[in-house]
Amino acid sequence: MLRDGRIAGSFRDPSGHVHELNGRILRTITDYAAAEYEALRDSGVLQRMIDRGWLIESHEIGRDALGTADELPRHVVEHPRIPHVSFPYEWPFSLLRDAALLHLDLHMAALDGDATLSDASAYNIQFRGPKPVFIDLLSLRRYREGEYWAGHRQFCEQFLNPLLLRALLGVAHNGWFRGTLEGIPTTELARLLPLRRNLSWNVFVHVTLQAKLQRGAVREGEARAARLTRNRPLSRTAYRGMLAQLRNWIARLRPADTGRTEWGSYAEFNSYSGDETEAKRRFVGEFVAAERPATVWDLGCNTGEYSELALASGAGRVIGFDADQTALERACHRARSQELDLLPLYLDAANPSPDQGWMQSERPGLAARRNADALIALAFEHHLAIGRNIPLPQVVSWLTSLAPAGVIEFVEKSDSTIQRMLALREDIFPGYTVADFEAALGQNARIVKSETISASGRRLYLFDRSGAQT
User: Fold this and answer.
1) What is the Cα–Cα distance from 310 to 325, expressed in whole angstroms?
2) Residue 318 in contact with residue 296, Cβ under 8 Å?
3) Radius of gyration of the chain (CA)
4) What is the pLDDT of residue 232?
């Protein structure tokens, strides 16, 4: 956030900016965009989008809401807060696909109302639970007869290409997208696809041909390409038809390489007996029922079983995190099919999203977006301490920093899961014991209670950070 309250990522658009003021989210609309906004507001286009749940709610407030200034914005609107801001490089495949479908649905509905979208940024979409919502009302403007889809390249690079990377090649988009921030370039994806993929008309039109045109534009100049476009106007029917055809294709895309993964089937194949599972569920359920947290972070959420339990026990919402793509897809399915306020996100906990983008603040990292009232970290810490060689005290310190209270499960080194992890490597973890864990936890929080829940010695700890010793 900048000193005037402006959200750091809101600086590129001359139409207006987003500010955070005393917990309120306010958007300014400048003279540059006022006529477009007023036209769509007065025609009812914006309200119809809001009524469908596609566009973030907004209402106009006083122009001086951000304080007096020499030049007041033409309008100021207030939006509700998004419970947890996330980015496309954190979304699982199915959430990225849902976001793409929302963008296309909203665009087609806009065309039906004599409007269009000026861009196609995936960052214009956020999630409330598993449901996407479009948050940038200033991307909507009046349609101009004969115009082309100005955001087609951006849509391909930020929505379509990341989806195709997984659907056609079985490669998750998250790391590449995070590294580039603006998506996956069409010219680079085209180099990766085998020639047989060109037999698909959709791939040929939206990837192969687009890559060729982009390379040609570089050689011949963008100005010449723009002149050719202006000389061949696109009818509204053809424009909408292109969006509909693209939507139908994307709706059919499914992630490749979705066989059983190490943790995707963990909920069905783990080392707990029925009684042990019940003891674990009781411990977690009682914690959440006593705390009644507005937001729970579930680290290592797997398929969302304990996220669902937390919601049933009184949590307002759950943000789930996991690195297993198959488990995340199952968590997404659980959230949608049961209408849970659960948002499953991709996270490599040893390499969480950093502050990045322009001035290293445009896209805030995970720590800057920390908003948990309670934490659940079940069968999780050993993946960092043993799997990634992170010292146990650092793991505990990080976990307890994420929320004021929570439940952490400690897995003994003698447990079969850790023994499998150590089967092909040297045991270099003399500091990984129950005593070491309890000492580290006690340095960062008060241990409210603990309970052994399995024959292998797995133990749950309830911590309260307000009682830390240091």
Assistant:
1) 22
2) yes
3) 25
4) 77
DSSP 64-109: TTT---SS--SEEEEEPPPSS---GGGS-HHHHHHHHHHHHHHHHH
CA–CA distance, 333 with 340 (Å, rounded to integer): 10
> From CA 143, how far away is CA 113, in angstroms rounded?
9
pLDDT recorded at residue 8:
78
pLDDT at residue 2, as a whole number = 44
- Measured in residues, the chain has a length of 470
How many C-beta atoms lie closer than 10 Å to residue 192's C-beta?
14
Residue 26, Cβ density class (10 Å: 0-12 exposed, 13-18 middle, ≥19 buried): buried
One-letter amino acid at 94 equals S
- Cα(307)–Cα(340) distance, rounded to whole angstroms? 9
pLDDT tens digit sequence for 411-430 = 999 999 999 999 989 999 99
Domains of the chain: 1-81 (3.30.200), 125-252 (no CATH), 274-467 (3.40.50.150)
pLDDT band at 217 (very low <50, low <70, confident <90, very high): low
Tens of pLDDT, residue by residue over 234-263, are: 999 999 999 999 999 999 999 997 665 554
| Contact indicator for 454, 410 with CB cutoff of 8 Å | no
Q: How far, in Å, CA of 279 to CA of 1, rounded?
A: 43
Spatial distance between the Cα atoms of 298 and 376, rounded to a whole number of angstroms? 5
Mean pLDDT of 113-120: 96
Confidence of residue 442 (pLDDT cuts 50, 70, 90): very high
**8-state DSSP, 333:** H
Kindly give the residue spans of alpha helices, DSSP state H, lying in 313-455: 325-337, 381-385, 392-401, 416-421, 434-444
CB 137 within 8 A of CB 290: no
